[in-house]
Amino acid sequence: MASGYRTYHRRTSGLDRGRDYSQFYVYGNAVRQAEALPERAPKKRPERVKKQVSRQVVRNRNRAMRISPAYAVFLAAAAACAVLVCIMYLSLQSEVVSRSENVTALQKQLADLTEANNTAYNAAADSVNLETVRDRAMNEMGMVYASQGTVIEYDSPSGEYVKQYSDIPESGVLAKSSDVSK
Hints:
There is one protein chain. By secondary structure, the chain is mainly alpha-helical. It has a domain at 68-124. It is 44% helix and 4% strand. The protein is built from three helices and two strands. It has helices spanning 55-65, 69-127, 130-139; strands spanning 5-8, 23-26. Strands 1-2 form a two-stranded antiparallel sheet. The relative contact order is 0.04.
């Protein structure tokens, strides 16, 4: 098997400059192994030269890193207040949820009772046949429809409810109280 590697370059005119027209031909069925690149040594950074720091600067740095007792008490009080607010918020949230569930249960109970009441009312209204009531009142009890002359109007002395113990007089007035102002 002939395994060859051939390249050719095309000469370009002035207009074709910048374009790469090189083509590579590889003959054979084996691909060449790429050569490993040499490893680069890591660049060494120059070591920092430690400067001498004065004692005053060291003391100031240490003092800045410490927390004063008053600041520590303030932080503890702030943390306690934050925890208390969170606990109160959670208790109010749970109360709102429980009341919402209670309202939902009461609404369901109201809907059930309203449905039962409407069903009972419709059953009672359907069970009464007004034609049967009129027929029974006229035939069995002797009742008659009111005619023009049988209705007597009268003035009620007080209230809307009247019990009749005796006949109503023809004048329509049941009782008169003596008027003191006259």
